[in-house]
Q: What sequence folds into this?
């Protein structure tokens, strides 16, 4: 019996928290963007008309637009992702981890839009002709990286889920593992690799190639950051012990912990990464399920209080599930 | 694999870990090339001193079962040796005989240990 999260009254306690995070992060992103819009509009008298709005591979401006047109394009291309993130948080924000990602991504987008406006227009102040606008390699790098700071603050401000004990007993038909009184037991597995590594490596190398071709050396920071991110996303230790389930990247982050007392039931499922989670790595999947997905096939599914659930693709998941059910029962 | 520790047992804690690796090898649950958990992780979960786990790993290394490599941790180098079917059959017979004689597990184990020393 697997129930879809969000179907009963008792699983709805996350909704106010999710709505609050969506609202304040969207407000913060909007405030950042509108402040930048107001600022660049106040520069109108100093800016060439039209302004440079696009730069070619040689670093020379090759596209021009009216100030209003350029601002409108940036606002629209910032709003799009923000709406998507808000929808994810609003409808699938059961887990604090998901709400953190939503808050961080929303604030990053707003700050990126603001930084793009400021960094591309500030150097054009006082120019008679937009064709004289300087290159934007460094401006682009700053616009991409500086927003990481407010994004990290936003993610940090999202509170962790409050403790919420599972209701009722572990179902009788859930598998168990015999454990003697006083015996200490742990199930430990490493998971690593999978198709995501190849995709991550190809993306990183591709970005290095583009950066070298354009000779925008400051942009090398982007593939560097991506490389670290991919390294963190594709090697985990999965641990089941008396404290519950812990999934931790070998770099220490990201990590998640499900206390034994919050586990409704553990079981084994088959995961199809694209269909269920839209890809590989640390994912938010259908119904708000958090996935640590490195490959297709066997996965340990942990259904948690409050309509939350975590799936981890790992071999020998049946042993982990049986031990988790036993430990969850003990914790009651 | 599942690791168990019984703090009430007379068998030293590190020896319990060593025995489980041997059993896992015998059952094919561990194969050559598999990596044992980081000593720190195992110690934390089983509420053991990390030196207890390292002691067990050193014993396994001295027995030629694992290699300890910096950065790679403990790697199994020796798979289950040979055909264990005769041993399993003899063990089943031994257990059956011990039950017929109403021996406790402790007594039967002691008998086996003494026989191994001869």
A:
């Amino acid at each position: 019996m697997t129930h879809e999260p969000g179907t009963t009254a008792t699983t709805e306690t996350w909704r106010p928290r999710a709505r609050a995070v969506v609202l304040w992060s969207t407000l913060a992103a909007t405030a950042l963007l509108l402040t930048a819009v107001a600022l660049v509009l106040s520069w109108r008298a100093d800016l060439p008309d039209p302004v440079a709005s696009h730069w070619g591979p040689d670093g020379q401006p090759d596209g021009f637009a009216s100030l209003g047109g350029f601002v409108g394009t940036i606002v629209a291309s910032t709003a799009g992702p923000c709406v998507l993130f808000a929808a994810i948080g609003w409808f699938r924000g059961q887990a604090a981890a998901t709400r953190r990602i939503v808050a961080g991504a929303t604030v990053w987008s707003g700050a990126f839009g603001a930084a793009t406006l400021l960094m591309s227009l500030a150097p054009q102040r006082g120019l008679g002709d937009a064709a004289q606008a300087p290159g934007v390699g460094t401006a682009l790098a700053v616009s991409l990286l500086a927003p990481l700071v407010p994004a990290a603050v936003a993610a940090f401000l999202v509170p962790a889920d409050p403790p919420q004990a599972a209701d009722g007993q572990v179902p009788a038909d859930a598998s168990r593992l015999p454990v003697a009184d006083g015996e200490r037991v742990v199930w430990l597995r490493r998971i690593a690799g999978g198709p995501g590594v190849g995709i991550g490596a190809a993306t990183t190398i591709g970005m290095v190639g583009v950066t070298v071709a354009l000779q925008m050396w400051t942009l090398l920071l982007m593939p560097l950051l991506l490389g670290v991110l991919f390294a963190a996303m594709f090697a985990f230790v999965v641990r089941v012990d008396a404290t519950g389930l812990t999934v931790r990247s070998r770099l220490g982050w990201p990590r998640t912990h499900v206390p034994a007392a919050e586990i409704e039931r553990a079981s084994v499922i088959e995961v199809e990464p694209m269909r269920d989670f839209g890809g590989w790595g640390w994912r938010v999947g259908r119904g708000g399920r958090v996935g640590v997905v490195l490959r297709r096939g066997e996965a340990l599914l942990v259904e948690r209080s409050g309509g939350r659930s975590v799936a981890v693709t790992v071999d020998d998941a049946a042993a982990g599930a049986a031990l988790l059910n036993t430990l969850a029962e003990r914790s009651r | 694999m599942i690791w168990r520790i019984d703090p009430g047992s007379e068998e030293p804690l590190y020896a319990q870990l060593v025995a489980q690796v041997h059993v896992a090898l015998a059952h094919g649950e561990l194969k050559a090339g598999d990596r044992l958990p980081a000593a720190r992780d195992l110690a934390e979960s089983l509420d053991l001193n990390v030196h207890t786990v390292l002691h067990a790993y050193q014993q396994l290394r001295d027995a030629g079962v694992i290699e300890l490599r910096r950065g790679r941790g403990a790697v199994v180098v020796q798979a289950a040796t040979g055909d264990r079917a005769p041993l399993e059959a003899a063990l089943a017979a031994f257990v059956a005989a011990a039950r017929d004689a109403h021996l406790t597990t402790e007594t039967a184990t002691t008998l086996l240990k003494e026989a191994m020393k001869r």
In short: Helices of chain B lie at 13-26, 39-46, 50-62, 85-100, 105-117.
